[in-house]
Amino acid sequence: MSEVRILLLPGDGIGPEVLAEARALLEALGPAIDLRFSFREDLIGGAAIDAYGTPLREETIEAARQSDAVLLGAVGGPKWDHLPKATRPEAGLLRLRKELGLFANLRPVTVFDALADASPLKPEIVRGVDLLVVRELTGGLYFGQPSELVRGPEGRRAVDTLPYTEDEIARIVDLAFRLARERRRKVTSVDKANVLNTSQLWREVASEVAARYPDVALEHALVDSCAMRLVSRPRDFDVLVMENLFGDILSDEAAVLAGSLGMLPSASLHGAPPQRPGSSARLFGLYEPVHGSAPDIAGRGIANPIGALLSAAMLLRWTLGLEAAASAVEGAVADVLDAGVRTADLAGPGTQPVGTAEFGRLVRERALARLGTTA
After folding, report:
1. CATH number among 3.10.105.10, 3.40.718.10, 3.30.1360.20, 3.30.70.100, domain 119-258
2. pLDDT in tens, 285-315
3. Three-state SS across the chain?
4. Catalytic residue among 117, 224, 296, 338
């Protein structure tokens, strides 16, 4: 039985609660897929600040490098908002992405049939939505220099820098096209080319990459009009590729389609996923739900674990090449939702919600059943 080494970074707020369900899921699936998952746990974000005075230790980076994959919960919270930007919890996550070279962030947005009525948008708008946001993750405003806030006798002044090289753009756009080939063969490249020089370069490079993929359609979209289309005609989209800041904002906007921010998983990768299905190659990745730490509900056992469970499914797919197991988890989530089970963020009037652990247990049972086994 092959071993898979997973580094767990529960983080802050509800992070430990939802990550516990992702771990339990992988442990339950292990015998069914002939794998043994070994877990090592460490601190990141506010928890690391409280314990070590830093949001990310060198030892944690090294532990990640020695692992096959990382599962992360969430970071941040008002407790640490007073700290300088460079020492806040989010700085630990940004540094981890940079140190590990995780330039590609995949954020799938799928509307489950059972939740078409849960979105604030009309069911006929969101039903059938299945899109993938491919976000460049290690460049742009979040890492550009200079970046500073200056307070002086003439007042306050702030500057951030938005740099991109053609190579950085080409590698993320190329990945988007390869992923689109496995889907519906359409890429929407998002920019602000009518204003920003970096976006003009982005559009040029995207068009050059597209020439290598004549079987995949390319459209360019300005970020503001794209934001409008996401909530008015979301089924227009297949794969969307964009720079770091735009990807951060638009992928969170897209969460409204699924009914809750707690629904969305993500994978941060340092290269192209292995050819599916059944590849023996292991592509290192960091997997995390898109939602934040939600400190207002932390410790109450009511957080939605779906984003974390689906992140574990992405680990099975992209790091391990186990398409059947990943699909079993995704199908299990759909089964539980189809049965009318809801967490508090999804429960409508008259619906009794279940807690984090109960939802996780039900998904484990259904995933094993789909794989033809039981716990």
Report:
1. 3.40.718.10
2. 999 999 999 999 999 999 999 999 999 999 9
3. CEEEEEEEEEECCCHHHHHHHHHHHHHHHHHHHCEEEEEEECCCCHHHHHHHCCCCCHHHHHHHHCCCEEEEEECCCHHHCCCCHHHCHHHHHHHHHHHCCCCEEEEEEECCHHHCCCCCCCHHHHCCCEEEEEEECCCHHHCCCCCEEEEECCEEEEECCCCCCHHHHHHHHHHHHHHHHCCCCEEEEEECCCCCHHHHHHHHHHHHHHCCCCCCEEEEEEHHHHHHHHHHCHHHCCEEEECHHHHHHHHHHHHHHHCCHHHCCCEEECCCCCCCCCCCCCCCEEECCCCCCCCCCCCCCCCCCHHHHHHHHHHHHHHCCCHHHHHHHHHHHHHHHHCCCCCCCCCCCCCCCCCHHHHHHHHHHHHHHHCCCCC
4. 224
